[in-house]
Amino acid sequence: MPEKGDIAMKKSWVIVLVIAIVIVCVGAWFGLNIYAQQKAKKEITAFLRKNNLEKSVTYGSVKAGFLSNSVSVDRVKYMVENNFTGERSGYFTIDRVVFSGSPEGSYCVMEYGIKYFNQNPKLKGLVGKMLFSIDELRLKVEKEDNKKLESKGFMENLRLNMPVIISALGEKKNRPLFKIVDFDSPIDAKVEYGVNFLKRTLKIDEYSIDFENNLKVSYSCKLRNIDFKRLETDVKALRSSGGIVKLSDLLDTLSSVNVQEIKFEVKNRGLVDRVFGFISNETHRKRSDIVNGFVHNLVVEYPGIFRANSEPLRRFLMSRENEVEVELKANSPVSLKELVGELDSMPLYKVIEKDFTISFEN
Q1: Which CATH number covers residue 71?
Q2: Is the domain of 122 the same as that of 203?
Q3: Do both 109 and 200 map to the same domain?
Q4: Residues 302, 310: contact at Cβ < 8 Å?
Q5: Do 95 and 191 have their domain in common?
């Protein structure tokens, strides 16, 4: 029978062994996390170098977990330059950027606390001033074996720094504008699109800007015959050349793209009513008379577009309907190159009449 001293000694050795294992595990945990952070820093450096952003982007601390597939970067600063002149126009500050997933596959990027400061001397009175802030930006990309790509992006609470902007622009000079537009309201944005690399198509399901208490504008389209490999090569060359040397190649690549369908949707959040209320007060005319005269002039000037679509537009402008949707469908495959060539020889409305069937709906 073992004596009490032997039992106590065995227990002591067990406790020491457990403590040693814990220390080793904790040390390994911290070591692996430090390794993960160093690896993340190297990947960030490589990404900035690959995209010619080394001189444009600075950042503070990097946090990465060994078992986590996310990386968090604090205090990011991004200098914005004109690609053609190289002049610095301003910079963004971002409190925190969180990246999860794989850059080569599916990933998600979230940005918090974004602010933009102007450095363009042409905007007198606004140099060094914060022009707007954004609470949050989110981008989610899902990629399938280089065959399909789907992306969703959201912007929440973009707010203009109105006290600074008003003081620079002059409130008295721009008083009518400030009466009509509610600049104190936030702006939200959303984008959803899908790319099929095999079919060479791009479908923008929704691109919307919602200016609360003012107006919401949504856009969608379908494009075909996109050479994605050549486009990627041209974009990389454009970045490396400063935006000048390879611009012609990029435009040539885009020229073969065919436009299938374009849709616009406008929702009145109060701006339309304030616009016609202001005009009515200034001209001492009824809103109905102003709208009827405006729509009549459009029908006379652009009959191919507005003759069959005057009533939906009239109902929207009179606020009998809260929204109007405009749809353009290509009569036959038409490339961007053809559209640009036609715009050189005829006005936009003639190009629309020639190449698209247009319809308005409430």
Answers
A1: 2.60.450
A2: no
A3: no
A4: no
A5: no
Same domain, 198 and 292: yes
Is residue 188 a contact partner of residue 231, using CB atoms and an 8 Å limit? no
Please tell me the distance from the alpha carbon of residue 260 to that of residue 327, in angstroms, as a whole number: 11
The pLDDT, as a whole number, for residue 315 is: 92
Q: What are the φ and ψ backbone dihedral angles of 118, each rounded to 5 degrees?
A: -85, 140
pLDDT tens-digit series, residues 85-111 = 667 789 999 999 988 887 777 888 899
pLDDT at position 25 over 70: no
Q: How far apart are CA 201 and CA 84, in angstroms?
A: 30
**Statement to judge: residues 198 and 129 lie in one domain:** no
Residue indicated by tokens 């602010």 = 115
pLDDT at 314: 92
Strands 148-160 and 88-101, how do they pair?
A: unpaired
Segment 240-253, tens digit of pLDDT: 655 554 556 666 77
Cα–Cα–Cα angle for 142, 238, 115, nearest 5°? 65
Residue 201, domain member (yes or no): yes
Do residues 94 and 206 both lie within one domain?
A: no
CA distance 116 to 308: 44
Distance from C-alpha of 61 to C-alpha of 136, rounded to nearest angstrom: 20
Q: How many independent structural domains does the chain possess?
A: 2
Whether the Cβ atoms of residue 334 and residue 258 lie closer than 8 Å to each other:
yes
Q: How confident is the model at residue 80 (pLDDT cuts 50, 70, 90)?
A: confident
Residue 197 and residue 308 share a domain: yes
> Which amino acid would we find at residue 113?
G
Per the structure, the complete domain to which residue 115 belongs is given by: 1-146+157-166
Check if the beta carbon of residue 159 is closer than 8 Å to that of residue 186. yes
Same domain, 130 and 196: no
If one counts every other C-beta atom within 10 angstroms of the C-beta of residue 360, the result is 20
Residue count (the chain): 362
